[in-house]
Amino acid sequence: MRDSIKVDLLLLFHLSIFQKINKKLVQVFVLLFCLGLSGTLFAQSGEDQINIVMPTDARVIRVDAKIDQWVYAGDTLAVLKDSKGTKFKFRAGVSGQLVFWRLRNLKHYGAGETVGILRIAPVIVEEVGSGSSVVALPAFKNMLLNLYNSTGLASLFRGQGLDWTEGFGRVIMIGVGLILLYLGISRKFEPLLLVPIGFGAMLSNIPLAGLSEPGGLLYYVYEFGITTGIFPLIIFMGVGAMTDFGPMLANPKTALLGGAAQFGIFGTLLGALALNGIPGIDFSLR
């Protein structure tokens, strides 16, 4: 009798311990489930919006987006210009809506600085207009205004308002190109050098032509000929082959003038390196 009572008490004791352990395990599983669910929710909420940061120190030349605007992957948000004068387009990497946007024209922003917030939208719904709707032609005044806005003259005035190098600076370089062409053609001053340089200065500064921008003719000429160093070698080989060395062979002392010219080259190089001390000038040997 006593043994059976002891067995029953022992069973009750083990049963109570087992129930407590089960409660603890259930509480632990519930806690882990809640933590995992909350982590997933936080991750999803963090992925809904992304910060737009500046890739490098640059000044804004043109802003193509505004707050609350829907943008698609690849759309141009702004055009930037770094301290070296290189221009590049600031594009959207994903599609979504700009809920925060603070880029302003002619303002300088540092690398890593947050300039906007984009709410990601995996699917963007747009209303499709009825095909039977009749689009009214714009007024004649608006047509003339649109025609004027598509001209290079209007581009010069708009560029002057953003950056002087896009407006009056282009006019100056076109004038320099004309002067070089005059000196090379009329005055016969080094026509093999001045005529190509003059044409290049004019063509690369024609508004809206885009000859020096990626995809333009002069862009590929520069990338395949100048950056590789092939064209300078060909030019100097051609100039050397067309040079008359008769006067130098008749008077060998004039060869010293060629040696003196090397001092001028190295002096110019050292002077260009010394100009790096002036703010805004970044000269490199590369």
UniProtKB/TrEMBL annotation:
Keywords, ordered alphabetically: Cell membrane, Membrane, Translocase, Transmembrane, Transmembrane helix
Organism per entry: marine metagenome
Cellular component aspect of the GO annotation: plasma membrane
Record protein name field: Uncharacterized protein
Signal peptide segment: none
GO terms under biological process: sodium ion transport
Coiled-coil regions, chain positions: none
Record-linked InterPro entries: OadB_MmdB
Membrane topology listed for this record: Multi-pass membrane protein
Record field: transmembrane: 167-185, 192-211, 217-242, 254-278
One annotated GO molecular function: lyase activity
Pfam family, one: OAD_beta
Places the protein is found: Cell membrane
